[in-house]
Amino acid sequence: MHVILIGPPASGKGTQAAVLKERFQIAHISTGDMLRAAMKAGTPLGKEAENYMSTGQLVPDELVIKLVLERLKQDDAKSGFLLDGFPRTRAQAEALDEALNQAGKAIDAVVFVDVPDKTVVERITGRRSDPETGAIYHLQFNPPPPEVADRVIQRDDDTEGAVKVRLEKYHNETEPIIPFYREKGVLKEINGLDTPAAVTAAILEVLA
Ligand code: ADP
Asked: Which of these, 27, 64, 133, 160, could form a disulfide with 76 (CB 3.0-4.6 Å)?
């Protein structure tokens, strides 16, 4: 199975991806996670990506495309993958299409999880994570337990200023690729405002 998860920042893609990965035993390929790992490891790619990411800008297409096409060649991606955070631009969508065509593969579904901008801002500015376990919390909607509360951290790009830029990039660069997939007949639209479990159920239904 070859699935793309698309949606605005904090639409719940990462949460859903973790469930779908387990359920279908396919590779979860998150460009955001890969870029953050590269930053943490201090690789040349990580150093280059850092300035873009911390301000909410997109990392240049050529870097991200190369990263993903290399990742898709790894063994665990051969039997199926779930792309999360890629493609984010028309050029990325076209490069992916071309690579899949060459490999005789095709996208089965593009799951578009949508939430309004207001919700994106609310979710992101309250988002915190536990650096020890990776667990994600929200100061209001899902507060960290007292023993964790002191150590939670905020992502560099989860500040109000960076969120504005991320939303702008999403509307200008990423939304325009939705018709590309709609025309291919693979687009599945999901309301991301429901509870995580209800969103999972809706995704499983469209993938069935
Ligand atoms: P979110 O979906 O919550 O915005 P991600 O973790 O997917 O977060 O991405 C965080 C940042 O990583 C983006 O704002 C961007 O700077 C960079 N990034 C991730 N994926 C891509 C991509 N496909 N193209 C360009 N930049 C990307």
From this structure: 27
Mean pLDDT of the chain: 95
Ligand 1 centre to CA of 36 (Å) is 9
pLDDT tens-digit map of 118-149: 999 999 999 999 999 989 899 998 999 999 99
* 9 touches ligand 1 (CB under 6 Å): yes
CA of 32 to the centre of ligand 1 (A): 5
DSSP assignments along 86-152, one per residue? ---SHHHHHHHHHHHHHTT----EEEEEE--HHHHHHHHHTEEE-TTT--EEETTTBPPPHHHHTT-
Residues acting as catalytic residues = 13, 88, 127, 155, 166
Whether pLDDT at 79 is above 90 = no
**Distance separating alpha carbons of residues 77 and 194, to the nearest angstrom:** 30
State how many domains the chain has: 1
Confidence (pTM): 0.91
pLDDT band at 75 (very low <50, low <70, confident <90, very high): very high
Task: Please indicate, yes or no, if residue 86 is contained in any of the structural domains.
Answer: yes
Residue nearest atom 3 of ligand 1, based on CA coordinates: 9
Query: Which CATH number is 197's domain given?
Result: 3.40.50.300
Q: Return the structure tokens found at 165.
A: 């830029």
Whether residue 55 is contained in a domain is answered as no
Is residue 32 in some structural domain?
no
Parallel, antiparallel, or unpaired for β 2-6 and 81-84? parallel
Identify the residue whose C-alpha is closest to ligand 1 atom 12: 32
